[in-house]
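Bug #77: duplicate submission created two jobs. Keeping one. Sequence:
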Amino acid sequence: MAVLMLGAALAAWACARQPIPATPGQRIVSLAPSITETLFAVGAGAQVVGVSQYCDYPRAAARLPKVGSFLTPNVEAIVGLRPSLIIGLDTASNDRELRALARMGYRLLLVDDDSLEGIENGIGRIGAMTGHGAQAQQVLDSIRARMRTVRARLERVPPRKVLMVVGHDPLVAVGGGYLDELLRMADCINIGAGLGTQWPRLSIEYIIAAAPEVVLDGQMGSDPQTPAGFWSRYPNLPAVRNHRVFGYDENPVLRPGPRVAQTLEILAALTHPEIFGLPARSPGGRR
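Kept job's structure:
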C-alpha cells in the first residue's frame, strides 16, 4: 500500500509540470507574485483564493489571504483554503512542501519565471488551465509587440556597458536570467554576466576594472541617499563621471511575469535616455 501511495504522489508531482485541463469554478492558490500577476492579467483573478505574502499586485491581490512565502509556503494555511489548484514555481527550494501537498492529493501546476521563454510559457499554461487561453494569448501578443517596438527604436544604437545592482553589502548584481536577457534586448553589455551565477557578488575592484557606462541600482528606489553616496566615492567610474547612476523601482522591474515588457521599456529608457528619455519616475537617479 505504501508503494502505491508513493507511486501516486510521484505521478502527481510529474503531472505538476505538464499541461492541466481547465476546470470550471476552480479555487486557486498562488505561491509567487509572478503567478498572481499572471492570473489577474489573463482574467482569472476571481478564481484566486490565496496568495503568497509578497503578492501585492494588482491591488486586489493584496487583500487576499496569505499562505506564507515563496520559499516556505504554509501547508496548513493552503489546505484551509480548500484549493482545487495550487500554482507554484518550478524550483527545488520548496519541494518539500509541494511534495507534501501532492501526497495529499492536491492538483499542482509548476511554471518557470526564470527566463523570457519560461515567462511566456507560464502565461500560456496558466491561461489554458484556468479557461482563459484567449486572454493569455492577448497578453502574450501585447508583450511581444511592445518588445518589438523597443528593439526597433534601438536599431543602430551602440551598446552600453551596464551594471545592474539588486543589493548592497554585499554588492549583488544581475548575472543571468530574464533580467540579463532584457538588458541584452536593450542593447546593453551586462558586466555581471558570464560569471557562472545568476546573482554574482561583485567586488568594487571588479566594477572599476569593468568601467560600466551606466549603473542601475535597485536600492536607490527605496533609499535614495545611501546608494547615491556610495557611488559618489568612485568618481572615475564612467557612469558616475557622466551622471548615469539611476535608481529603478523594484516593482515592476524585479517582477517577472506579464509586466516584463514594461521592464524592458524602463531598462531601455535608463540606459539609452537619448533615444527614449528617462522614465517618468526614476527614484534617487541622477539626471
